[in-house]
Amino acid sequence: MVDNLEEFILTRRKLPLWLALLLLLVAVSLLVSLIYFAVRANSEACLDGLRAQTECQEDNQHLQRQLDQAQEVLHEKEAEAATCNQTVVTLRDSLKKEQAQVAEFQGELKILNQKLKDALAEVERLRRQSETSPKNNASSCSSFLFVVVAVLVLNAPLP
């Protein structure tokens, strides 16, 4: 190849000989550099680096999938927490209503207990009165029956 080039240069004399040699030297140095870098690119250290890079990418993708799953679970748990919070609010409102009703019933129960005590006191007063005067026995009986009916009505369960 070099001989052919020299013959071409000598016969044509378009390129000076020193320039041809310089071009040949540059071509050979480029070829040697290319071979050197090709060998280095395929060296064990470079291949290890490529393996490590691939492994890192796989680990990164695995971690990204785990992160996505964790975020999905977090969103589900946040939704559950919101539902629980709403349930708590609803239950508190119901409890307040129930407590108000209980307080109202306790007030009514106090009133009914007082009426019962009054009725029992009236029964006791009428019983004593009937014991002292036998002629008022019929009216005492009717008063007694009235008080008994009142007590039964007061003791009747509330709807």
From TrEMBL:
InterPro entries: BST2. The chain crosses the membrane at residues 15-39, 137-158. It holds the Pfam family BST2. One of its GO terms (cellular component) is cell surface. It comes from the Eukaryota. One of its GO terms (biological process) is innate immune response. Keywords: Coiled coil, Membrane, Transmembrane, Transmembrane helix. The keyword Membrane applies. Residues 53-133 form a coiled coil. The keyword Transmembrane applies. GO terms for molecular function: metalloendopeptidase inhibitor activity. Gene3D superfamilies: 1.20.5.1700. PANTHER family: BONE MARROW STROMAL ANTIGEN 2. This is Bone marrow stromal antigen 2. It comes from Muntiacus muntjak.
